[in-house]
Amino acid sequence: MGAAEQVTNTSEMNSRLNPVPKLRKISRKLIENIIRKVLRLKSPALDIDDETDEEDDIEFDWRRPELAPYLPYVDKNKTTNGTLPRLDLDPSWVDCEHILRWLRICDEQHGDHCGGDSHQRTRPRWLVDVDQLCLVPAWGTVARYFALSYVWGRIDSFQATKSNLERLQQADALRSPEPRLPKTIQDAIFLVRRLGGRYLWVDQLCIPQDDEEVKSVELGAMAVIYRNAYATIVAAQGEHADEGLHGVQTVPRMLWSCGRREDHEWWYSLHLPDRRDLTLARPPKPKDPRSMDDREMMQRFGRVLLRTTWYSRGWTFQEQLFSPRKIYFHNDTVNWDCHCRSFHESQDVSPASPGLGLCPRTRTETETAFIDSATWPNFHRYARLVAIYNIRRLSREEDALDAFEGVLSSLSKVFPGSFLSGLPSLFFDAALLWQPYTPVVRRVASEEATTAAAVLPSWSWVGWQGNFNSESWRSGHDYLRSIDARGIYTYKPRLPPSPTPQCSWHTLPTVPWSHSATMQGERTPISSAWRLEAQRYATTDVELPSGWTRHRDWKGTVFFKHESDAEQEFTYPIPLSSSSSSRSSPSGMEPQAPARPRFLHGRTRRARLRFGESFQHRPTSHCTAVDLVDDQGAWAGVLRLNCAVLDFRDVQEYLAGETCELVELSAGEVQRSRKREEVSFDEWDRPGCPRTRGGVYEFYNVMWIEWVGAVAQRKAVGRVERRAWQRLAGEEVDVCIG
């Protein structure tokens, strides 16, 4: 018998729903959700079969090993393979003893691997006292605190402000009914109390939302706030803050179970809030979820979590990234994820269970797992972070930098020159070459945004929302001798370091860039001189900067190491911040706060070229590329356009015979024989490209611009072959790009 025959109409479903004692009534939305679950059977809690086509899902390619450290559940040790004993679960309410057991295991067996108390020196300004139900200053508090990560959503909810801050410090100030807190916050307060905690950090209560000065400081401290939390409660179910933590206090969960009858047909049972079961028939499934090993089950839960509204929001990115220990609520279940282990509530993790202790990572590997423990500027890792973050969405586009400020503030300690609207100053020429992987959308500030908040320049990735191609920044980390792609099970490189640089693509500065907050404001130069001098360390025996040592491998190839990381090998020394070395260095740069310039200025060369044939090059992206030709139709270069490959024939007709204005960004070169470089070059197999003739392919990086008054806007970025550009770009121009 099918689901449609068993549940014939809404009234029949309603008759089966009676409120549990903790609920006053069942909302219409809850009824609709139950019906939707019954008829569609999407992702029940214990039936976590994922029917999406992962091969075509370019946004959620969770199997890539270099992304594993930043994704939920999957980056764990091999010893979690196997199957722990399974527990019977309460179908309506979460047993907090499971969570307490996870916390004890992590406290007693994982130590510094999961943060411990080593970072407790820095605290937020305010915390919620869950016993007194009021705000208390965090600076005088010695006890540990929990943090909450959730989706605000489009609902009106109570917030701390400058006017009510004093009142919120009085006992019972947060007790319902006035003010009414969203269910998610109510449940989080209840859960912290049940877990034996005293304090909770919630952004909308602990940051006065109308105090811009305090808000700016706290946004920059997001990294340490979540890093220092005892654990982070993640409310990943639902689309707003009034969804609640299902199964904790205000909202019972609806747990699916499954099994096979004697005739081998599958049955699925949904436990309703009135403690009655609704049993449905369904075609046989290929595998009983209860027969999965632990790793397979957690990886499937990871894929489900990646498709939640919580994971899609920009603000939750750094909350997930910096939290060493997370308690996930999603799909009517609760899961655990820390640096060493991940657990599902159905697993029996009693102290006698095997494989619950430390992961076999060295102290150095453990520290590098947390980006705020980095000792040198890792541009490769930063590119991956931007790629993951930029596909997420924001209710207000002008928050793009605010929601990423914790990452920028943390990394600015080891990136000399800090960041300029999201681009690292140290690698600025290479960072300007960012490209989309799929078409991106121009971010536009909301009408209520202030001028100071709306920093969305077209020349930076932060001005666009969508799938950023991290491979377009490969020339920026050519200083890494072996690429920092960590394996899924350990943080060690998957292969021994290569005797040659992992990247033969190099970007060389040719334009003296400067930046400013306003068009007529003070201009600050962007220094690139170090890049032109770097190669001399590898070709001569000149004295190295302090802290650097020169080495040779068995083939005689020179490489370098720095005292701050004895394991990392570099192709040449790079500038480091003064905090990266235990010894003072005249070349060390003091850390700077991230800056938010709107305008980029430079004196450069300009040329006009015609559009040639449009094409698609799948190894590089899912975007359309177009040839650039001179007036005689000779191939000169290529641009990657911000449109899908399916539209390339329409683009061909639209651009036929048109010209574009190009300005020079920098120079570049790549070894033509290196097949691995194909992932970054749309023109790799184009008939007119001189790359096919061996040796070194030399070119200039160019930007297609469009003028809006006196300010140029980025349209696309590409390359023009060196001799063609030198022949065609005879005009110098002062350009201001906004």
TrEMBL record:
Pfam families with a match to the protein in the record: HET
Species assigned in the record: Schizothecium vesticola
Domain Heterokaryon incompatibility residue range list: 145-319
Record region (Disordered): 573-597
Record-linked InterPro entries: HET
Transmembrane stretches, start-end: none
Skewed-composition ranges (Low complexity): 577-587
Protein's name according to its UniProt entry: Heterokaryon incompatibility protein-domain-containing protein
The organism's place on the tree of life at top rank: Eukaryota
